[in-house]
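Side project, low priority. Logging it here so it doesn't get lost.
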Amino acid sequence: MTERKWSIALVQLSDSFRTTLSDLARDLRASVVAWSPDGSGQSIPTGTSVLIVLAGGSESAALDLLDGLPEGVPRYVIGASQDHRIAAAAVQRGARDYFALPDDFEILRRSLEREAREVEGRVAAGKFAEVERRAHGFDTILGRSPALRQSLEQAARVAEHRDVTVLIGGETGTGKELVARAIHYESPRGAEPFVEVNCAAIPANLLESELFGHEKGAFTGAVSAKPGLFELAHGGTLFLDEVATLPLELQPKLLRALESREIRRVGGQQSRKVDVRLVAATHTDLRTAVNQGQFREDLFYRLNVVALTLPPLRDREGDVELLAETFISRIATSYGLPVPPLTPELRAALREYRWPGNVRELRNSVERSLVLSPRGTLRLEEMGLRQDAVKSQGALPFPATLAVLTRAAALAMLQLTEGNKSAAARRLGISRPRLQRLLEGKDDTNEN
């Protein structure tokens, strides 16, 4: 049996054409629910795709009925009268069209076929959005630290609201784009487009056209009209990364678009309505940029409706090792390499590093070491970590136990020698096995 994916509600003011409409609905794989204003028949179900008022001989009553029918559902009136005034009145009262049968039957068929395609498109978009939500939702963002979970919980609450503007802050590499995608796909807009642009990656003289589009002949090289990213994101989310780099002369136009929900293409005279949620991200302090005259204050407040700040990796207790293990497994598998263990000395070194590039740096470091290390191993010296980013490179922790002090000294020396254990042991004046025990947190002060 053919699956029926959409439904037509027949509002029966007349029995005329009911058989014709039922046969047509069957051809278009639509289920049919009959409803009568006197209360007989089924109620109009939630999720009805199309409402059709059967008004053969009752056209005047159909016009009066239109005002009381559910909003948001395409409505058509089918009658027998060829009077164009009835058609005009039906459209004025909210109907999408009026068809006089039998003459308009083919036009009716084409209209319902279009409705069927739109329904199928919405179903397909919903399925795609569910796949994307599973791939990019909040559950896919790795980390168990309280600092990260608090930020994600706030983001999840924001996602529930369709139109709230969001400003995501945080250092480079903290996952701002991941959170922006999660907000979109976990929101009521999840079945609509997610469009992203890095404001710093597009030359200032091209960014306006990129955002708002242009008309043919608007400038040299504009050989045809082109919609901008606002138009492409209609119904969905526009993500502006590195928004702090937005040119000052373009900022008023962005503000106007957010306030009026309208845009105007470069070289155009006509304003176009856009329905877009804006999510912006920056790794710089926009308040400071405002104070320095580099960012408009009114735009800052418009973007800063809900501000989320992602914590740096060094403040996410326990997440470094979790992320490292995940990256090791994924990357090694993708390259066809054995998955190496995360040794105690590697764990210690990862914890002691400040990760100025955050999660992005960690992933790149793991990938580098997997490629350069012997198969099945992950060597610290191949990770390319910066010596000036080691937490313990300054004064040793004090007051502290002797075990903590010696382990901190061992870690600091290991970083200074870029992971070369033999060199670190030699410079500390101890044996390599003892260095290994110190790195593993096993205090041993009686053996060289």
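Brief comment: The longest helix spans residues 105-136.
Revisit when time allows.
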